[in-house]
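Whiteboard transcription, Tuesday session. T.W. wrote the C-alpha cells on the left side:
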C-alpha cells in the first residue's frame, strides 16, 4: 500500500505542472468569461451584480440568432466543401502517390505565408477589378465585371475552404495510411469492384479521419472573424464579428462574453450531434 501511495504521489507530482498550465490557459479564461457574462455594462463601468440580463438580451435579439445560424451554415458549407475536395487528394497521396513526403510538403506550402496575406490574396482575385474578372473580360466571356464574387457568403466559404484544406487532408491521409492492404486484396478476391471496395472497405475505415477533419475545420471556422471582415461584406458577417464589436467599439464586455459562451455552446451541440450521426452512419455502412 505504501508503495502504491508513493507511485500515486509521484504521478500526481509529475502531472501537476501540466494540469496547472492547462487550467491557467483553458479553465481560467472560461471562468472569467462566465463571470463577465453575469455582470452588466453601465457606461464606463461594470456592475458586478449577478444577472441573466445579457443572456435574455442575446437570446431574444433577432440579429444574434441570424448571425449564429449564418455562422453555423457557413461553417458547415466550408467543412463539406473542404472535406469533399480533400478526400481525393488524401486518397491519392496515401494509396497512389510514389513520393508521399514530397506531396505532403507541397500541401504545407500555404502555411509558409501569413493567413492574413492569403485572405488578401483572395480579395485581389475575387475583386471587381481583380484577377478573376480581368481574366474573364480578357477572353471575352463576360462584358461587365461580376459583382457576386466578393463581399458575400460565397467569398467567405471559398476563402476559408482554401485556408483550412491542409487541416482536412492530413487526418484523412493518416486514416487511409492505416488501412491494411490485405483487406483490399481480400475484397478484390471476393469479386468486389473498385467502387464496391471503396464503399464497403475504404470509406468505413476512414470515418474517424473524416470526423476529425470535420471537427478541425468546423469548430474554428464558426469563430473566424478576420475572413468575414475582409471578404464577407455585410452579407458575410458572422457571430465572431459581432463579438469583436462588443469587446471593441461597443466596449460591452459582459455582452461579448455572453455571445462567446452561447457560440461555444452552439458549436459544441452541433459537433456532438455530428459525431453521433457520423459514428452511427459508419456502423450502418459496415
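and on the right, the sequence the group agreed on:
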Amino acid at each position: 500500500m505504501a508503495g502504491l501511495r508513493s507511485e500515486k504521489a509521484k504521478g500526481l507530482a509529475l502531472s501537476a505542472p501540466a494540469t496547472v498550465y492547462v487550467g491557467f490557459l483553458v479553465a481560467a479564461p472560461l471562468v472569467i468569461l462566465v463571470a463577465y457574462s453575469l455582470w452588466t455594462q453601465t457606461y464606463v463601468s461594470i456592475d458586478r451584480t449577478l444577472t441573466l440580463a445579457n443572456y435574455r438580451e442575446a437570446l431574444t435579439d433577432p440579429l444574434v440568432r441570424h448571425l449564429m445560424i449564418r455562422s453555423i451554415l457557413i461553417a458547415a458549407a466550408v467543412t463539406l466543401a473542404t472535406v469533399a475536395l480533400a478526400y481525393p487528394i488524401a486518397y491519392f497521396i496515401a494509396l497512389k502517390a510514389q513520393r508521399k513526403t514530397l506531396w505532403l510538403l507541397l500541401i504545407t506550402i500555404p502555411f509558409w505565408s501569413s493567413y492574413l496575406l492569403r485572405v488578401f490574396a483572395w480579395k485581389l482575385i475575387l475583386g471587381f477589378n481583380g484577377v478573376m474578372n480581368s481574366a474573364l473580360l480578357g477572353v471575352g466571356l463576360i462584358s461587365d465585371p461580376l459583382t457576386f464574387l466578393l463581399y458575400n457568403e460565397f467569398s467567405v466559404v471559398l476563402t476559408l475552404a482554401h485556408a483550412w484544406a491542409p487541416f482536412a487532408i492530413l487526418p484523412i491521409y493518416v486514416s487511409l495510411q492505416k488501412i491494411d492492404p490485405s483487406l483490399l486484396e481480400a475484397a478484390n478476391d471476393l469479386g468486389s469492384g473498385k467502387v464496391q471496395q471503396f464503399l464497403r472497405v475504404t470509406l468505413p475505415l476512414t470515418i474517424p479521419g473524416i470526423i476529425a477533419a470535420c471537427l478541425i475545420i468546423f469548430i474554428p471556422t464558426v469563430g473566424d472573424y478576420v475572413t468575414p471582415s475582409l471578404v464577407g461584406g455585410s452579407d458575410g458577417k458572422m457571430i465572431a464579428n459581432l463579438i469583436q464589436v462588443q469587446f471593441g467599439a461597443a466596449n460591452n464586455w459582459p455582452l461579448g462574453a455572453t455571445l462567446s459562451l452561447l457560440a461555444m455552446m452552439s458549436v459544441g451541440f452541433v459537433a456532438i450531434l455530428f459525431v453521433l450521426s457520423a459514428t452511427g452512419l459508419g456502423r450502418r455502412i459496415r
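Someone added at the bottom: The mean pLDDT is 89.
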